[in-house]
Amino acid sequence: MMNITTYINELRDLIHSKASHPYLLQYLEPPFVDEVKLTILASLLDDLEISDEEKDKFITSTMLVQMALDTHEKVSNSKAEKEISDLLKNRQLTVLAGVYYSGLYYKILADIQNVSLIQSLATAIKDINEYKILLYQKDFDDVNQLLETIKIIECSLLIKVAEEFNKPDWKDFVGNALLLNRLLEEKRRIKQRHHSSLFEILQNIFFPKEKKHLSIDQERFIYDKLDRCIFQLQQSTEQLLKRLSPLNENIKEKVCGMLEINLVQSNSFVEEG
Fold this sequence. Notes:
Elements: H1 4-19, H2 22-27, H3 35-44, H4 52-73, H5 79-82, H6 85-111, H7 115-137, H8 143-164, H9 169-191, H10 197-206, H11 216-243, H12 249-265, H13 269-272
Helix pairs in contact: 1-3, 1-4, 3-9, 3-12, 4-6, 7-8, 8-9, 9-11
């Protein structure tokens, strides 16, 4: 394989070229490509004895499914928006964009006649949507149940790819790494005072009677719990990565680099004040 950074850049450009539609781009932001998932997916499929073209199609189609799911996540259900024509148009186009990306995924996999992978990814989509409903309902009894739900949402697509191509050793790593990535993203949102559904759910778990603002001590308690989850995941993810063998050193360096960047960013809330 070429340099992994160059390869990821080429894959991202390929995905954007497949997903770009001039009308949608007039009204919507360019589709987001999750580089962490893209890098892990490319790493997972690195040593398959298939052509580069076929490998690119597997990666592209899977990431188009992820883009469709991510795009539909942006659709607002606000009643206020329904009364404003421009925002309603944006909402409708966002739904259309998600459907468009899904259609591209089916076309690419149909071209290479991989019915089995289509079925596997369809199962993952079903699981993801079911667990997203649970997350939206915010009805969790404990943190472990919450983390397992988030993990399934984040990693189901890549887990199905690992199963399809007989890569059982990757499953635990993929689950831990993508859960870690999601928690780090939620922490970034909390620090920037953006909305975080994770923080709301943690508040419901630890302080169910507090319907308004938490005290500083209560906030710090939630931050500490999140930090502890992140720290444990950091350790286990690094250990699982070391066990993946054989693994192209070029790829391992890239994946480790991404995790190290996240680790540097993961200083505790308390230390940052």
